[in-house]
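=== Discrete structure encoding ===
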Amino acid sequence: MVGFVLKLNLELLMEIAEKVRFKVQSLIDSGKAGKIVGVGVGGDKTRYVDWVAEKTVFEMLKTNKISCVVVSEESGVKKILGGNQNTYLIVDGLDGTYNALRKIPFYAISLAVADKPKLSAVHTSLVANLSIEKMIFTAEKGLGAKLNGKPIKPSKTNNIEEALITLNPSTNKKILEKVSGILCKAQHIRHYGAISLEICYVASGRLDAAIDLRGKLRVTDLAASYHIIREAGGFIVREDGTMLDSLADNPQRRVSFLAVGNKKLLNKLLILLKNS
């Protein structure tokens, strides 16, 4: 355990992730993990395992005497030890709750540190798969992105028919029509249920693209992976191709995006969206 850390750095993010991993894994086999204990600020139901994961983050911050402003899915905006306005921690304590409850090994903690509440202001980030001990994606501004300490780069695959893409089309008819061009052309479509990990998979070349145009994802879901894919050299944009740089001061704010490994594939996907 780090003693009295006054700066929210990557080392502490890794300690927080490990503590949350232990707490979540301890709950998975219990009957109370999935119990609904309230409603988060974003309007979604809060499960007991979500509450424990987030509570653990807060406890670690206080133990290490970190003064910061936390923006989280469950608690909203919360000041810790005075709330240093130059340090924001954007948190999703458990991304992929349903996967965790069903023991599908694809759920994560997402932690992003910024000096102001904006996605482009994130300078240190971590996304850790809580079900796999050694799958920790990290990034520090200007230093690239890493998986378990080793540099990662996105895929160069630019043929849509060959690309492995995650896409959540929803049941909304307009969204289905919007992505119909991609669905008709792409031959390898997936949806894994934890968007922070999916974007990191694009950053590391495991996936070629991750798409979600429903307008339902919160900035807390993707703040850390947003930073990681950009540091890796990939792209994350809005559906019109413009830069995604949402404010991160409100967990109720929703976003849509395309996260793509390379520019050629991105342009092809954008053309299909435009023509659908």
In short: The chain has two domains: 10-151, 164-275. The domain at 10-151 is CATH 3.30.540.10 (Fructose-1,6-Bisphosphatase; Chain A, domain 1). Residues 10-28 form the longest helix (19 residues).
